[in-house]
Every structure is written in structure tokens, then in C-alpha cells.
Design brief:
Number of helices: 2
Order of helices and strands: HEEEEEEHEE
Shape: elongated
Oligomer: single chain
Helix content: 25-40%
Radius of gyration: 17 Å
Strand content: 25-35%
Number of strands: 8
Bound molecules: zinc ion
Amino acid sequence: MVTKYNPESLVDRTNLAVLLHKRLSEAKFSIADQFRGEDVYELAVSSKITIRVFSSIVNGMCRGNGEDAIRVVAIYRRADGKDQFLLNETRVNRTGAMTDIVNRTVERARDIYRELVRRKNAKMVCRSCGAPTFLSSKGNEVCAETCWVKK
Ligand SMILES: [Zn+2]
């Protein structure tokens, strides 16, 4: 019998944080140090593209129910040093068995990786500057460097 994660339990919240850390470390993610509060894990997939996991872990414990879920995103580091979301957030709900929550998190990261590869192979890049494009809220593919904007 597998016990379900209980977000009311401080022990469960601590155990889930430990499991997440272990699983993400095995998947070669490391903790990014520029964030305060929540532990954020990163895996560089190229010199400019990173998969980022907002773990919901704060001080060694997952956040409580109703607070932010685990989120997985792909980030592009622009030439000006700013971060641009390439693939928007996929949320992982902290429900069910803890091993399932942890596996779902890594699976979402794999989905994002696969989508990055698909976009690269489909040559979804800016025709002017070659930077990757992302899908805007209006449904257009937009250059991640916004190269048409005069600097
Ligand atoms: Zn461009």
C-alpha cells in the first residue's frame, strides 16, 4: 500500500523535499543560487537554454497546500542578460504518492526537453538573428531576443 502525500503533515512536506532533491540531483539538476526563498533547480541544455524547476521547497520543506505548486519552465538567456521564458510553465500538483509526485516532476522536465528538441529540429528560430522563438500570448512565434526592437 502506498500512502498518499499529506500536505498538512510537516513530516511529509520534509520527506517530499528530500525525495525531490534526490531525484532532481540524479537527473543532473543543481540548485541555482541566484534565487531567494524557494529552491530553484536548473539544468543547462545548451549555452543559452536552461530547464528550471521551481521546487516549492522552502527551508528544506515543500510549501503547504494552496501555495504554489512545483513548476517547470524553459528559459533562454538573452544577449542583454535577461531571462526569457521559452516554454511556459507546466505545473505539477502535489497530490498522490510522493514517488509519483517526484516522478511527474522529472517527467515534466523531460517533456520540456523533448519540446525544445522538437522546436530546434523544426528550425523554430528567428529568421533575422537565429535566436529561438517562443509562442506569445497572442499565438505568434516571437524572437527571444526581440531583435526588431532598436537598442
Ligand atoms: Zn531575432
